[in-house]
Prior knowledge:
52% of the residues lie in helices and 7% in strands. With 338 residues, the protein is mainly α.
Amino acid sequence: MSDNDASPKPVILTGAQPTGRLHLGNYLGAVRNWNAMQDDYTCFFFISNQHAITLPKVPAELRQNTYLCLAQYMACGLDPEKSTLFAQSHVIGHNELAWVLSCICPLGQLERMTQFKDKAKKQISVNSGLLFYPVLMAADILLYNANVVPVGEDQKQHLELTRDLAEKFNSTFSPTFNVPEAYIGKAGARVMSLQNPTTKMSKSDPNKLGTVDLIDSADVVRKKIMSAVTDSEGSVRVDFANKPGISNLISIFAAVTGKSAQEIEDEFAGKGYGDFKKCVADAVIATLDPVRERYERLIKDRAFLDETLKKGAEVAQRVAFKTLSKVYRKVGFPEKIR
Length: 338
Ligand code: TYM
């Protein structure tokens, strides 16, 4: 260890559900930011396959999707040499800690979660895992004593619950957990559907034209962006209330080019939506093309993906056991004699 490494780096923990294909919202709102943090933080990036079963899944697809998710993480630049990449189901401790946290978590706080209410509305019968989901998410974060959790805006409320639970545990027992901060990037924190720009871009959108997948071909990306819903005014300017479609495209263009909304408005003053959409499509394709190419190589190398998950789980497990035994001691469970 060099002198520079003497003080430990702050810890990041974050992840995504393995739903097959990550989309442009996941990339701009989340994975791209994670990528940039790898040199400055001790990073744990995981695949939250246990969260995924809160909604019905086909087992063979879920199994395969864990690999697809890992390959997409790495195609975006997450590097197993720098960061710990692992599958949630490979590490014992997430559910154990979630149980302890659930015993200090008021039921009413879970019932008020916006994502729970939204998802529950779409179900015929609501399983208790869907309600419990944010407690498992808090456990994911606290198990690694994360300082920072980089997420898109939709996860903000879950982070607030995590902070509440950390503080409650610390004050009920004794200081144990860092109270983690959410990191929400400036650009791309909330990418909206291209077809229904008042709802967020989502893997579960039934209208496939609404979501640009990370691994869509250039032709498909172009088709989706060119058919994005706009308005009849014809001017490229930000107005989320009255022009959500164009405002969303401006945000996407800003996020992939690094330009400000004002620069984009000036650049396209007097030009039509067709010209603007073409430039947005070109910029998104230029961003995603190299990601798709890397993904296509990685997904063929199953042995490498398995080895990455194995190594990641070993590192994560060591940290998880350490935290869990501390928590068990604090709540009053006797030490297991080995
Ligand atoms: P998930 O799989 O829905 O999304 C993964 C990440 O992508 C972000 N995101 C978006 N950002 C911008 N615009 C969008 N349209 C958009 N859609 C998704 C999300 O905010 C997220 O950062 N519950 C989490 C997974 C999870 C987790 C955790 C995350 C489980 N445990 C602990 C952080 C820490 C989820 O379902 O993300």
